[in-house]
Structures are given as C-alpha cells and as structure tokens.
Design goal:
The protein starts with 7 loop residues before the first strand and ends with a helix. The chain has one domain: Alpha-Beta Barrel (Aconitase, domain 4), CATH 3.20.19.10. By secondary structure, the protein is an alpha/beta fold. It contains 9 helices and 7 strands, in the order βααβαβαβαβββαααα.
C-alpha cells in the first residue's frame, strides 16, 4: 500500500459563492439510498445546478478543478458522509473556505480531503481571482499552511491534530492498521478469546 501522506495539493480552483452551504445542498437526500458511494459525483449540487444553469459545477471552464473555494460554515446540516464523498469523486482534493461545520470537516479528513480556513477577505479575493482566471494554478501547502495563487500567498489554518494526520499519513485508518499489522497479530495471539481458552 502506498503512503497516505498529503503535503500539498496543486490544481485549478472552482469558486462557490454563498455561506451556510448545507450537506443537503451538496448532495440531496434522495441520492443517499445507495449501497456504495459510487456515482455520487453525478449528483453534486443537483438541485442548485438544475435551478441555476450558470452554477460553477455546470461550467466547463471549471471541469477538472481540484480545489474548491467556499464561504462560511460550509458543510453544515446533517452529518452525511455522502457530501465529502461526492465532492471527492467529482475531483475535489482540497477545500479552502472561511469556516467548516465540524462533522463535515472530520468526514473530509477521514477520506483525505484537507479543509483549510482563510480570512473572509482572502476567501472573497480567491473566489474572485479564480472566477476571472479559471486557468490559474493554485497550491495548497499543508507544511507551510499557505495557499499560493499567482504571486500571492495567503495564510491558511487547520487544527494541528488534523494537519499532523495529513503530514504523517495517519488520516487513512486502513493504512495505519496495515502498518501496525504485526503488532496487532502479536496482541491478538495473547487474547484468550482469539486463541482459545
């Protein structure tokens, strides 16, 4: 298994206007009857996209973007894992915003999608510059906690515990378990309910 370390994400951005974007808007409830998360990317912002043909996720110029730029309290509402899963499967590898709902942030961390906060002014500037220059490459650097956009660097923030998980690869619980395989087997061999009485 390859390392789960995530130090930086580089790619184009997709700006999403608005605050308090809840998980039901990210992935409407009628699409949650799936057994797996496969195919959820087709339904990201389904209702918003239908109501607004100019929605960023409908625009060809943002196709292939990997960094989502959002406002305040992104991912609020019900604690559905489907929302970050749908965004990740659409191609989002990192999210930059003013603030995130706590459970959404944790669900993103658990699948390797870093969410970092920037100031309201920087978030607004970043959305505007990406809208004006969708071809611009952005870089989210988790080691220096900066967002690079052209010749400008923005200070980014993330709880240190989550940041360490990305830099050490421990956000991926499966990887951590596989790395500890021998220790787990040694411990299991000492347990009477595993080895018999």
């Amino acid at each position: 298994m390859t390392s789960a370390i995530i130090r930086e994400i580089t790619g184009r951005g997709i700006p999403l206007p608005g605050d308090d974007m809840d998980t039901d808007r990210i992935i409407p409830g009628r699409f949650l009857r799936c057994v797996t998360f496969e195919g959820l990317e087709a339904h990201v912002f389904a209702d918003d996209r239908q109501q607004n043909p100019d929605h960023p996720f409908n625009q060809e110029r943002y196709r292939g973007a990997s960094l989502l730029i959002v406002g305040r309290n992104f991912g609020c509402g019900s604690s559905r894992e489907h929302a970050p899963q749908a965004l990740m499967r659409w191609g989002i590898r990192g999210i930059i915003g003013e603030s995130f709902a706590e459970i959404f942030f944790a669900n993103c961390t658990a699948i390797g999608v870093p969410c970092v906060t920037v100031s309201a002014e920087d978030a607004r500037w970043l959305r505007e510059v990406v809208a004006a220059h969708p071809e611009m490459e952005l870089r989210l650097d988790l080691e220096t906690m900066t967002v690079h956009a052209g010749d400008r660097r923005l200070a980014a923030h993330m709880p240190e515990g989550a940041r360490r998980q990305f830099l050490e690869g421990t956000w991926n619980s499966t990887f951590v378990l596989l790395e500890a395989g021998e220790a787990i087997e040694r411990t299991a061999a000492q347990l009477p309910y595993v080895t018999g009485f």
